[in-house]
Task: inverse folding
């Protein structure tokens, strides 16, 4: 998949455009099962040991964050929003629908960026998508940072947590959605909790509670 057209063709062939369970205002190109899409991605790219195609699923933390943004548009209305590890672009699309003046969906997976553009197009919206790694930057020019379900392993938590803290100190509003992942940090302000419908093959359950938090200037590491 060397170009945008090939990636779009692949996504349309392997997924189906369908409403997000907790956020039916938004539809994304989603896969019904992990393994078939993962295998197809490996075969198409002729690569092995790939990460799962995170862009093809509405993860619980992202659904909660998108729902919160739509229900509380004052957090993003008229502001520049950076949707970090954006995957499908679902959260960024929610921000745009809620009135954000600018939305940049950032994901190091080039296929995720293509999926974001397709999903935004399906909503008749225009937003930016970039596969540049921006972790560590202070993101001048943006007011709000949104991150759904990013504390999935220790290395991610150790890399992203201090950056979010620095962004909050720099004056950004940093909101994260998380369904109780093992490496989620403590000390954050809980804003809202939702019971999120999730695919059983991803989460081994059909419903998962997920909470939206505000990242303070100083977070307390979790004891676990």
Result:
């Amino acid at each position: 998949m060397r170009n945008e057209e090939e990636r779009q063709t692949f996504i349309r062939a392997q997924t189906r455009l369908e409403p997000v369970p907790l956020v039916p205002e938004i539809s994304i190109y989603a896969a019904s099962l992990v393994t078939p899409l993962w295998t197809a991605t490996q075969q198409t790219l002729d690569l092995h040991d790939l990460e799962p195609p995170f862009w093809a699923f509405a993860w619980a933390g992202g659904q909660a964050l998108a729902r919160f943004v739509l229900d509380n548009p004052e957090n993003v209305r008229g502001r520049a929003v950076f949707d970090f590890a954006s995957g499908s672009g679902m959260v960024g699309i929610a921000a745009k629908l809620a009135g954000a003046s600018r939305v940049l969906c950032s994901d190091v997976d080039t296929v995720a960026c293509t999926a974001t553009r397709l999903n935004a197009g399906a909503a008749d919206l225009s937003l930016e998508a970039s596969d540049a790694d921006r972790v560590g930057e202070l993101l001048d020019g943006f007011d709000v940072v949104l991150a759904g379900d990013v504390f999935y392993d220790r290395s991610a938590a150790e890399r992203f947590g201090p950056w979010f803290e620095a962004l909050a100190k720099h004056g950004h509003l940093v909101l994260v959605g998380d369904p109780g992942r093992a490496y989620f940090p403590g000390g954050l302000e809980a804003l809202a909790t939702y019971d999120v419908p999730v695919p059983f093959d991803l989460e081994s359950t059909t419903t998962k509670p997920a909470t939206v938090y505000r990242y303070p200037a100083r977070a307390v590491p979790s004891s676990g």
